[in-house]
Amino acid sequence: MNGVFVPRRRIGNTGSDRTLTIVSAAVVAAFALAILYPLIYVISSSFSSGAAINAGAVKLFPVHPNAEAYRQIFDSPAFVRGLVNSLIYSISGALLGTTLTVLAAYPLSRRDLDGRKIILFVLLVPTLFSAGIIPTYMVVRDLHLLNTRWAIILPGAMSMFNVIITRAFYQLTIPEELLEASRLDGANDFQFLLRVALPLSKPILAVNLLFYAIGQWNGWFTALIYLTNEHLFPLQLVLRQILLQNQVTPDQMGSDAGALVAQKELFDKLKYALITVAMLPPLIAFPFVQKHFVRGALLGSLK
Amino acid sequence: MIPRGVLTATESKPGDGPAAPGGSAIANLMASTSRRSLILRRMKRNWRLYAMLVPPLIYAAVFLYWPLYGMQMAFRDFSVAKGITGSPWVGLKYFRTFVDSYQFWPTIRNTLVLNVYELFAAFPIPIILALLLNSLRWALYRHGIQLILFAPHFISTVVVVGIMVMLMDPHGGLINQVVGLFGAGPIDFLGEPSLFRHIYVWSGVWQSAGYSMVIYLAALAGIDPALHEAATIDGASRLRRMWHIDLPGILPVMVVLFVLSMGNILSTGFEKVLLLQNSLNLGVSETTDTYVYKVGLQSSIPQFSYATAIGVFKSVTALILLLCANWLARRSTRESLF
Predict the structure, then answer these.
(1) Which residues of B touch A39 (CB under 8 A)?
(2) How confident is the model at residue B288, as a pLDDT?
């Protein structure tokens, strides 16, 4: 190529760059719309009239907006029970999980801890080679935890993924000088963790709390295998019964609503409302964890 | 540096004498005992750190290692009355039962087809999305799109399947309304065995492409901007820089994610498969995991040993696949998980 063509090539390149930018923006926007539209449709339908849903009148925004469906489901004992149970599981799972994670991650982040590689290895092996559902089920059974809330809270209480990102956080943010300084002030390791390390690690604590809470909120399979008592069912399991198995008894939808269940119109609307209530809390919480989660996901995938 | 070198040089000179080996052995011994006592002293000083580790280790012992110990059920004729250690050894009996059973090939085939399809459909999409999104400069737009694409990762499987059930409902579901516009009759999407795999895989892309994309974006953010500047000065277009700078830059992350998904190839999406399963699509939706769940827990006469054996079979195969993928990745790209 000689010099004459250089300017032309430059122009061509910026032109192709502009095309690429437009194509990129369009492709990612299309993907984002494909994700958003079903979610918006579900939420809008839950606020629309049953007749409008059935007639296909709901396109984007609610038609004949009303909150009737929500009034109905909050009158249903099964739904309220599921909601309360899910809150209990989420809050206790978050507290227990975060406590265990910090207790594992902080010592393992200390370079002067002898044997930390062995301990980390011991904790990581089961993530590579899992025992499967039956042996875990037998442990829960042998501990007499079947049909108790503990069966939901304890077995998956600590996630090694969280331990690793939390450990990395401590390694990166707590300088050794800080430890030496507080040692000179007479602080021992317990006091250092409580008074120095924990206040400095609020962001990662928030990530842990939300991560475990979302995990419990979204979980249903442990409840399916460990619980038979419907009074302990989390919301997701109640949702599964109603949505996927169409098991609806008058008791579940409230005795008055029982007669109305026959009407598919109303029932569809109730289902949309149930889906909305079940999916919204994690969607509201996740933007707060996003930033740290990204960093953690990268770290987690690299080690 | 220099004084120490001089010191060792002068020290090693008398070491030529006959007394030297014994002397150095004593020095070694003293050094090692003093190192050991140093470690012991440090461990003693750090006892509080070990105390902190006690609760997590108890958790791991009970809920991670006890089940591993319980895996021996697969090699015993387990009965609830006798307990694990009281039940007689039967060797590989239950593994043989599984391999010989008429369910063996269908479940293995379904599991492999479902996961290989998912791997090849779901693997490139997040990479493409990350490269495209990364090439855009408007920060607000990028953040907005990233937030939206990441969101479905935080929705539960029950809700995702619930939305699918509602939208694909043959009687008035949104998708069938659209199908109706083209004059086609309502399709029972979830009851149609030939559609099961596509629905499973593409709903998975819908839910998790954003999550993987975010990981790639984080890796792309770590690429030295000087590389891009230099390439731009040389006249490289954005597309060329994507190919020659961005793609090699995220190769390590790609390899790690690929190796990890090879390890999961026998177990991904168990919960979703179970939720999407119905009597109509059982022929293509019965995987090893759902089969384990059925014979081990759902059946009225649970066969614990048999179900555990299938689980062990799966875990061992998954570990072998992971190690093979890791080995292959190290050989071909010099990147690996470990």
Answers:
(1) 151, 163
(2) 87
User: What pLDDT sits at residue B232?
Assistant: 87
Residues 6+ apart with CB under 8 A from A69: A46, A47, A266, A269, A270, A272, A273
Question: In this complex, do A13 and B235 lie within 8 Å of one another by their Cβ atoms?
Answer: yes
Q: Do the chains contact at B49 and A100, CB–CB below 8 Å?
A: no
Alpha-carbon distances of B154 from A259, A300, B147, B164, B325, rounded to whole Å: 35, 18, 11, 16, 29
Scored b (16 or more CB within 10 A) or e, A56-77 reads eebeeebbeeeebbbebbeebe
Does pLDDT of B6 surpass 50?
no
Contact B274 A108 (CB under 8 A): no
Interface of B with A in 267-326 (CB under 8 A): 271, 274-275, 292-293, 296-297, 304, 307-308, 311-312, 314-315, 319, 322
Q: Are B304 and B78 in contact (CB under 8 A)?
A: yes
| pLDDT band, residue B299 (cuts 50/70/90) | confident
In this complex, the residue of B49, B55, B70 whose CB is nearest that of residue A100 is B55
Q: Is A83 helix (H, G, I), strand (E, B) or coil?
A: helix
> If pLDDT is split at 50, 70 and 90, which confidence band does A231 have?
very high
Residue identified by tokens 């902190």 is B52
| Cβ of residue B175 closer than 8 Å to a chain A Cβ | no
Cβ–Cβ of A129/B68 closer than 8 Å?
A: yes
Average pLDDT over chain B, rounded to whole? 83
User: What CA–CA distance (Å, rounded) separates A35 from A283?
Assistant: 13
Name the residue with tokens 């956080």. Answer: A169
Q: CA separation (Å) from A84 to A72, A236, B182, B251? A: 17, 12, 45, 45
Q: What does the alpha-carbon distance between residue B94 and residue A162 come to, in Å, rounded to a whole number?
A: 36
Domains of chain B (ranges plus CATH)? 23-75 (no CATH), 94-333 (1.10.3720.10)
> What residues of B are in contact with residue A301 (Cβ under 8 Å)?
215, 253, 256-257, 260
CB distance B257–A56 less than 8 Å?
no
pTM of the model: 0.83
- CB–CB contacts below 8 A, A to B: 273
A215: which residues sit within 8 A by CB, 6+ positions away?
A: A93, A97, A156, A159
In the predicted model, what is the mean pLDDT of residues A132-147? 91
Query: How far is C-alpha B81 from the chain's CA centre?
Result: 36
CA distance A300 to A6: 46
Residue-wise pLDDT for B70-94, tens only, equals 888 888 888 888 888 888 888 888 8
| Window B:85-124, CB contacts with A under 8 Å | none
Note the pLDDT of residue B65: 93
- The per-residue pLDDT for A12 is 43
Per-residue confidence at B2, pLDDT binned at 50, 70, 90?
very low
Q: How far apart are CA A269 and CA A62, in angstroms?
A: 12
Contact A294/B237, CB-based, under 8 Å? no
Q: Is residue A53 pLDDT above 70, yes or no?
A: yes
- Average pLDDT score over residue span B42-71: 92
Residues of chain A with Cβ-Cβ distance to B69 below 8 Å are 135
Task: Determine the pLDDT at residue B259.
Answer: 80
Please state the ipTM of this predicted complex.
0.84
